[in-house]
Structure prediction request, 679 residues.
Amino acid sequence: MNDKKLVIFSDTFKPITIFLMMIVLMFILFGFFEYDKGYLSTRNIRMLFTHMSISAIAALGLTYVVAVGHFDMSFYLVGCLAAMTTSYFNKTDLMMNSFMLGNIHAFVIPAVLAGIAVGCLWGLVSGVAVGIFKLDDMVTTIGTGFMAFGMAYFYTKGSFIYDNFLTSGITEINDAKWFAIPFPIILMAALYFISYLFLSRSKHGRCFYATGSNKVAAIFSGVKVKHYIIIAFVVCSGFTSLAAIMTTAAQGVGSVKASLNFLMPAYAAVYIGIAVFKKPTVIGTFFGALFSAIMLNGFTLMALPFYLSDLIIAAAMIIAIMASKIDWASIKKKKSNTAPAIHAN
Amino acid sequence: MNDNANEIESGFQISNLFQAKYGLIWVAFIMIGVFAIASPTFRTPGNLLEILRQSGLLAIMVIGLTWIAATGEIDVSYGDIAAFTGIMTAVFLKAGLPWPLTFLFAICLGSIFGLFSGILVVYFNFPSLIATLAVGSGLAKSIARWVSGGAVVHISNPPGVVYQIVYGTFYGIPILFLITLAIYLICRELQDKTTTGQHLYALGENRQATQEAGISERKILLSLYVLSALLASIAGVLLTAMVASGNPNIGGSYFLDGLTVVFLGAMIIKAGQPNVIGTLIGVIILAILSNGLTLMGEYFFVGNIVKGILLVFGVIVVTLARKRRQVDGRFVVA
Prediction:
């Protein structure tokens, strides 16, 4: 019993310690170089987490798909469709006379739900294609994703939607604050907490990982593999749609390219998490996203051009994964009794 | 399956042309017919030759992807590597370097990305999607933007020889297409008549078995990624010559097209396996489709949807064929 506890301890807390050390190091580095620019000010930290929340939620969705041993290349394109759907329904004046909830018109909520529903629907399409028809995940999701992206153009032929953005209260998704904490951060914390309970602390979570590590074994163990794959894709698309809608709210304009730059940060967060935790976990993804966010924030304060953000994130991901592979090969010769690296596809 | 193989050995028969594995060629003819009836501009010889010329670039870019897909891996970096090489070409030419040196440098620099993603996949066991994603849209695209300052780099006049390659004609047929055709015929020989070519498909069928038969998986995969980047770089140089500018963001527009043509091409010739001749036909079909849709006044995003559907359809055919082979437990070497 004691041994088991020790294993659990080293499994979850050692990686967290590594991450915390890395993050503290980054803070010290950037804080040292940019103290005068207010890197460690409350305002900047709050901004860091607000910016992080969007890519972190998209990465959280991707964690589910990677946990069942698949790749999703459609999520960032589906997000565009969801963002445009929400903007479009936000534009319609059908319920303009509706009552107000605080500073939010009641029709904003159906609009957001419609966006997420459309996103989930596309996730369902990808999930059925991969889970039931057993098509190649990467290429199929690229296909379904670009279909969604093409459909995102149908609403306005590609032009922006500005209507009702300032009056309907959709921007409250980004601007609202509860107890001085911005709403995106609360949303992120809530989704991560729920996902942690679901993936790491419940029977269903074990089934996700069982599906990811060995499908045949999972089927013989009575796991409904197909269901979990479909759920993973739906959750991924749903979360990304939410993140895309949050971006739309933050930008104050409905754009077909709302979530086009999610691809790299989301994969980087998930795979930096895997590099340290050896499997796709909610905590790992969180720290991966936090790690990239700290770096991006720091480099942005250093006035690095925006187009280098992907370079930094990609380099961090490559170094993280390479470091984890070197560890495996040379230091730990003994066979691990923990879960195998299920992402090796 | 066995009957199928025998039929091929027995030589050419007219009835063979109506087999499912040549179906796509008939689709191409039907498409040409429909567009020719619908649009008077489409059926002019000038437009048809223009389609051939425009298909050349994409065709050169995706040969590497075709073979990588045949081994069961994936490469999503070709478009961004082409964009990177294009930028480097434009920048070097602007700096006053002579063109042969420019092209040599640009193509070498582009190939380094292929080497890097190959090393990541082969020696560090990266999933190929993650490696090529990080190298392509992470490194290559960002460095291209860095070098160009995020903007399009214009060059005043492309050097004569390359201009001839891109825009010249030989007895009315675009030289670019003739070169592409030559490259494809050589690649077909390599793919079908050499042992290395067969090893590609062996890797795609069963990694374990191939390794145990003593074939170096690492050497093949590494050289494939380098080859893919090399050909993408050549396409990038030609692209820069064609549009007289380097654009760091152009990679994205080749991303979907490349995958679509490879998996469309997998439907024909070698039922269910990516192969070079299939890819070439796929490229031409896609060029016809884009051209026809544009001439009929459709928005470009309709093309996105159609390509997405074609891609999924291609994957379905590949998956069905793979499943059938696995059930049979035999391989079709044809």
